[in-house]
Specification:
There is one protein chain. By secondary structure, the protein is mainly alpha-helical.
Amino acid sequence: MSVFSRLGGRRAGFLAHRAGVAGAVVLAVAALVSLLAPLFVPADALDVTRVTAGAWQPPGAGHWLGTDHTGRSVALLVVQGTGTSLFVGLTAAVLSVGIGTLVGVVSGHFGGLLAGALLRVTDFFLVLPALVLAIALSTVLPRGLGTIILAIGLTSWPSTARMVRAQTLTIEARPFVERARALGGGHAHVIGRHVLPSVVPLVLVNATLAVASAIVAESTLAFLGLGDPTRISWGAMLHQAQLHGAVPQRAWWFLLPPGLAIVVVVLAFTLVGRALEAVVTPKR
């Protein structure tokens, strides 16, 4: 049975988790908003040289979520930042999970000196605080979305590697894998036919949770001023609010919407991940 058919057979189980379904609906709405953002946000709506509204205007009929220090609509900034935050979170999670899966499968399957070396590298990254290392990489490398994605992806893969390695060792200790080897099955056969089908569901669950962590990491780096200055994201909005005195101005409308957006989307990814985890690894 293929990986996709196995996941499809668990669809009914996922639908039984109301929190996971609610999280999936929130993520679908967020994805739709990010895709339709060009229709909601005209090209010149966020151009500081063309806005006509005043600075720090409270929410009203003209601007549902008020304006920022330049007179730009906070609602449009939140919509525009949705795509950036989701893009960074998804791509950084794919990079992180990809590295972790490769390291975990290779170290668990081959063993020996190669596994020892990979485990030492994994331990090295586990000892270092991921956020501090990401800040260091973002400071040294040129600022941009690529740097943020690279910094998050290169610092958050060890947990995935350890989980995948443990699952690989468990699968390869089973009799059907030993039988496949006795019948002449090579490394590619064992990994492709036996290890990956058992590892992929857990990897997908971990990827969902990794996206939530990546969004928080991107928002943290952007809030510290290490994000892409040419891109609008929720973390960058919080950075601008702190930099230009939204608190002294009592402009809660510039702080609350991006902060709530981060909380809601991260919570949605977490709920989906927990529901998938319950379906993939049911309690016995």
